[in-house]
Design goal:
It is a single chain. By secondary structure, the protein is mainly alpha-helical. It has a single domain, classed as MetI-like fold (Orthogonal Bundle), CATH 1.10.3720. The protein has 14 helices and two strands; from the N terminus they run ββαααααααααααααα. It has a two-stranded antiparallel sheet with strand order 1-2. It is globular.
Amino acid sequence: MTSTVTVTSTDAAPDPSPQGSERRGGVKTVPATVRFVAAKVGGALASFWLVVVLGFLLFRMIPGDPVATMTRDRPTSPEQLAALRERLGLDKSIPEQFLDYVTGLLRFDLGTSYVYNRPVSEMIGERFWPTVLLVGTATALAVALGLWLGVRAAWRRGRTFDRVNTGVALTLWSVPQFWLGLLLLIATQGLFPSRGMRSPVVPDDPIAQFLDVAHHLVLPCVTLLAVIYAQYMLVMRSSLLEEMGADYLTTARAKGLRDDLVRRRHAVPNALLPTVTLVFLQFGMVVSGTVTVETVFSWPGLGLLTYQALRGPDLPLLQGVFVVLAGSVLLMNLVAELLYRVLDPRVRES
């Protein structure tokens, strides 16, 4: 009797597919990371298209006639008004105006301002960097202050330091920015400049110019800082409180680590994840929220430009600023979602 022995190799053939890809039914699928990024970018583009449509329709519902505003206090005949409407394209139907607007956006042409008779993209470019300076400075200071106070408030939960700082943060968070700005103007009594970004006469010395801009920046920056730092402080405090009861902190203390090292090396890095993403999420919102602050202090940025465009109403200028501000919010949201996937392994595995 002859027996037959079948030997089966346990060595699997190497998978030639690149790392991160999958095979289902012999068909190579798209890597999970590529699908995630494509979905987020597609969602951002869809949201941007919705912003373009809503922005176009919204500004045409604003009361007021741009032609009547431009010809105010000027004797103008009906024929001249009709010619001006034709030159501005206001004699066309709403669908035709929308088609012209979208076509211009595809060419990166935001149109020409009704009131200033200048390209909108040029005006936005001039006002963009003052807003970045104001928002960037206020955000950097708010993040540093908020994280520092949030860590110490959570570590001293229930004590006087925690109660006082949490109460102050909640109060400032609920204060309207324009009202706080007006209070600062009254409280300082001319100690800091209240209008503009530069003095009328500034020496040619670069250091003197820098100090002059910094002097003008104090009040609007403090106004933004006082409101937005509270968000970072409260989120950091809440995140750290959730981590304080974790088992790994108890293990670290059992190994003999000092309380300060436990907080700095173990608790704070894990509690930082929600706050880091909040920085990017809120940065876009802060940019769009500078309208009131820049108007109060006459800071020559996009916020003041928006207020000036609303007085027209200057439709091309309003639409252009709205697209830039909304685009900044969507871009920061996209960066936050992608960054969170990089920072948190649990998101990558989901």
